[in-house]
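Before a computer can learn anything about folding, someone has to put a protein's shape into writing. The three-dimensional part falls to structure tokens, numbers that each stand for a local backbone shape. The protein below has been through that process, and both of its lines are reproduced in full.
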Amino acid sequence: MDSRHGLLGIAMRLAAATAFALMAALIKLASDAGIGTVELVFYRFAFGFIPLAIWIALRRDWGAWRTQRPGAHIGRAALGLLTMALTFGALAWLPLAEATTIAFAAPLLSVVLSATILREPVGRYRWSAVAAGLLGVVIVMRPGGGGAPLAPIGLALAVAGALGVAGVTITLRQIGRTEGTATVVLWFTGLSLVASGLLMPFFGEAHDLDGWLLLAGVGIAGGLGQLFMTTSLRYASVSRVVPFDYVQIVWAVLLAWLLWRTEPAPSTLLGAAVIVASGLFTLYREHKLGRERARPTPVGA
């Protein structure tokens, strides 16, 4: 894989981080305008289906809907839908920067789940990184610390959402062994759209033009972010592009200042630094161990 492809993969990942940060900001704006979580989830998929359909058409991947594991997709969709509702709810209760920072504990929690559920070996270095990262989450939550207190329900939703994302990561690792990316994304979008649509008669409301623009923006930004993230892995390895996901935290801080004139508390910046450092170290260790396993005569990990 040449350097141009690597740079294109990084560019796609940066575009994904930007799209997801914009989606989070639009979700918070919509929540501030009184739009409920159920509607946000439904329209995330309804409008997000537009870029997905265009992507499938451009790739001429007309068989993306075919699968031999519908049960696995249903389970993944249920977990993903619950996780999305938790994450969207956290954005309604917490400042944008804090909610985004806590969400980035998910890669660390996925290490915990991979060890407990998949029984994958985890060495002392990665356990240490996980412990440090979770300490970073506690710092962001700032129990007894300075700054305005954060809503306990928002903190609970954010942590639960991060745990859900970690669970989705483990699920995707298993499904991805037999299913293509387009198939996974299409089934998740379709099933989630149907499931959330069943609730719309009870939660759907009329909106003015600004409300519809916010909902459309949430869906399109989320859909584009998902596609950019997927495309990045076609041009560069996971270890090369994943570090750029943390740009989303920078965007969250900037958007929070631009839209709400709020600045993150010092504890948020410190906690974010700890979480990012822990996540990058965990990624480095997994990359290093992967290379060692690929050697003809493995050395101790």
